[in-house]
Specification:
Elements (H helix, E strand, L loop, with lengths): L2 H9 L3 H26 L1 H7 L7 H9 L3 H8 L5 H23 L4 H27 L22 H4 L2 H22 L2 H4 L4 H7 L13 H31 L4 H28 L1 H4 L3 H5 L2 H12 L3 E5 L9 H4 L7 H7 L13 H5 L5 E5 L4 E2 L3
Antiparallel strand pairs: 1-2, 2-3
Helix pairs in contact: 1-2, 2-13, 4-6, 6-7, 7-11, 12-13, 12-16
């Protein structure tokens, strides 16, 4: 089957898209839960099929050995599954990022932001953490912070991380986030820094049109993303209380059980297995739109204090629908344009694709208070 036919089929949610989705979900399940699968599922399969022999943990270890050639010079030791995953993830972002830049080479905004996410992923999320391990320092991802990376704000981080790294996380979470969002909107992080957004906007670009734009999905989005934010805040508070109590009792057991539950179902299940596995079925921003607690905070700031918004020129709109079709966050941009309303939705990540695909120049990414146009 020609490549173009395969690509077209996957983009249309046909059987090929389902196979790709299942493959991605299985890969993430093996990545996060290889030991659990070996302990609970493999024995069951061996009862059904006596000759069945397979170890997920060994399979991931052998797969990881394929990048030992890079792990030894960067980390001073052999590759594990997380280094292998980071290598594949970064490779996809860089290679598909170059493809994205080629496609949108006439849009400076798209070129700049794509170069940004490629650089952040390559340097801050791959090379730096690896080199830290070689220097016998615990790996640290400078592009992630609370509440997306909850463990960087827990009291235990003071003992597990260099003090400067902990302070960096606190600074980014509670000072940089509100200040940068005030000036630039949610896009400064979601479309210029975040690794989740980097993969979505590069490797996942062909699937952005699959995001659902229904009123129901918008309501569901608000329920799920703010619920997870509340859970993240409450869990952080409970873990802080438990740390300072320092009493091994029922409350302590509950705190650690809650932490394990969150990382298993939210951190691994939602963000990883569902968030990436659903690219070919529901678009590339399922996690960003329905689950990310940091995106929830950024969204609140964007609609309440931020100077950033997408402005519309109703007189130029021909209602072609390109903007809505290619909005990865499921926003019906055309409806706003037809009404001549600015777009300040909490979900908007300011990727600017709606502006790039508009044939009439109806949409502009602007800083309304200063009167500066951020995209030309």
């Amino acid at each position: 089957m020609p490549y173009k036919n395969i690509k077209t089929g996957i983009r249309r949610r046909n059987i090929l898209a389902w196979f790709l989705a299942i493959f991605l979900m299985l890969f993430y399940a093996l990545l996060y839960w290889d030991k659990e699968i070996d302990e609970k599922i493999i024995p069951f399969l061996q009862v059904l099929f006596p000759g069945f022999r397979f170890s997920c943990e060994q399979f991931m270890a052998k797969l990881s050995q394929k990048v030992d050639f890079l792990s030894y010079p960067l980390r001073g030791k052999g590759a594990d599954k997380w280094f292998f995953y980071g290598f594949v993830y970064t490779l996809l972002v860089v290679v598909m990022g170059l493809r994205f830049i080629r496609h949108y080479r006439h849009e400076k905004y798209q070129v700049y932001r794509t170069v940004s996410v490629m650089g952040v992923q390559l340097v801050l999320a791959f090379l730096v953490p690896s080199l830290l391990q070689k220097a016998n320092v615990k790996e640290f991802y400078f592009s992630y912070f609370w509440p997306l990376k909850i463990e960087y704000f827990l009291p235990s981080a003071l003992y597990e991380l260099p003090r400067a790294f902990f302070y960096w996380g606190v600074f980014m979470s509670f000072i940089a986030v509100p200040v940068l969002t005030y000036f630039f909107g949610k896009r400064w992080y979601c479309s210029w820094v975040c690794g989740c957004g980097a993969l979505a906007n590069t490797a996942g670009d062909d699937f952005r049109h699959l995001s659902t734009k229904t009123e129901f999905s918008w309501k569901l989005e608000k329920i799920t993303i703010y619920s997870i934010l509340v859970i993240a805040i409450v869990m952080t508070a409970i873990l802080f209380i438990n740390h300072f109590r320092a009493i091994p009792d029922t409350f302590s057991e509950f705190a650690f059980a809650l932490q394990r539950w969150y990382f298993f179902f939210i951190g691994a299940g939602f963000a990883g297995v569902v968030g990436t596995g659903f690219y070919p079925l529901a678009g590339t921003r399922v996690w960003c739109r329905f689950g990310c607690p940091l995106a929830a905070i950024l969204g609140i700031l964007q609609v309440t204090i931020s100077r950033f918004r997408i402005t519309t020129n109703h007189g130029l709109c021909i209602a072609c629908g390109n903007c809505s079709t290619y909005c990865e966050m499921g926003i019906d941009v055309r409806a706003y344009a037809m009404r001549g309303e600015d777009i300040r939705r909490a979900a908007c990540v300011g990727c600017g694709i709606c502006q790039a695909v508009c044939p009439r120049g109806v949409l502009r990414l602007e800083n309304r208070v200063l009167g500066l146009r951020q995209s030309k």
